[in-house]
Amino acid sequence: MSRTVLQLIKEHLVSEQGIARTTGGRPAVLLQLDDHQRRSIGVDIHGWETRVSVATLSGRIIENSYFKTPADPMKTLDVVNQHVEQLRERIPDGGLDGVGVSCRGLVNTRTGVVERGNDPAWWRIPAREYLEARLDIPAHIENNVRAAALGEYHYGSPDVQDAHCLLFVMLDEGIGVSLILKGEIFYGQHMSAGEFGQMIIADRPGPERHDRPGCLERLTANDAICDRYTANDGAASLPGVKDVNSCVRQICHLAMAGDKAAVDTLRETARYLGIGIANIVWGLDPDAVVIDGTCTDAWPLIAPAIQDQFASERDFPSFRNLVLRPSALRGEAAIIGAAALPFQRLFTEGNDSQSSPRGERPRTAVPSPIPETAAGD
Fold first, then answer.
1. Residues 266, 298: contact at Cβ < 8 Å?
2. pTM of this prediction?
């Protein structure tokens, strides 16, 4: 076994998993990520609820806590601090690599500042500085869509893990897009790349949105789906709906059961979504597109409607062999991606004790979920 592998074992990055089969010669030792020692804590801040989770090096969530998100951002960070402190008490000394936080809106990952959140109260909030001062451990702040894209790329379906260019689309109260190029997030000059939700794809917003422009977000986000359904003459009542997410879930279930109003609603939404994605594909030429959102509960209905907006694979290479699939992590991508952020320094240039300077753009390499390899001499 090489000295490099021995050092990785010593640092609890990999562990032995037995001996590989051999047809002759010295058998190799099977290795995989050590899932027993190192831990991180991921935080996913929604407008209505915040989730705090403990994760392993392989992206496995092992413990969760939740709380209703306070209206005040600093109060939210205070409660995050309390939950992290409670969870870290059950992690052995030295086993916690840090905290990764996923936030909505424009996030400057270099400085750890939420420049502008989805809620107006989240304006230039120094989240990293605030948390590190109280927790005395590294904190990493990332936009929720970028965190989810990282989670999907490294821990999702194998058919996107080798993608040269991955386009990740998240639909919830808005629509966000993240681009991963050669395994790293593309941030753009102002840390705001991916705002394709503002793309205008209709000269009018549709009957349910007379006062708003026909941008992709206004036509496909969860509230647009709910508005489109309730405006349909054949719409059924939706008992027990508490928020737009549960509204969309019920519409998906109705559609899969054959409800015409629900089917029409989702197909119309998917048509707009397909137009938007097709425009992005024309410009960026990705090899995989992953969609994350409650609407994927009706994937057999929406996938064909999206693909109907794509150009001919035979005539246009940008659409040839293009992978289109729902998120393999099923709503868990953002929290898994957030929890992976503290581990990224272990798998980039330098060693365990080194991290990038504060002003340097963060590297986004994190471990593969099942990096099983054979190590000989």
1. yes
2. 0.84
